[in-house]
Design a protein that fits this description.
Elements lengths: L12 H18 L1 H19 L1 H19 L2 H7 L5 H4 L1
Length: 89
Amino acid sequence: MAGKKRGPAKGDPRMKEFGRRGGLALAAERGPEFFAQIGRKGGSKTKERYGTDHYAEIGKKGGEAIKSTRGIGFYSQIGRRPKSKAQSQ
């Protein structure tokens, strides 16, 4: 059968495990700074490609999705939560 891929099909639960193991191996090999570096590269490329308005647009869409699923009261709840150490620094 020409063109048929070998291995687990997309959506196979084993694929999630393979990805997790690969990520753990990469983290052990290159360290957390590698992931921070590629995250910065991706973010700067997105900003370059789409502009800063893109972030406002996707933030607005995310806020609307949360409002529709959790309701307006959710925002007052999270506003009262104590800040974690990471947020206060």
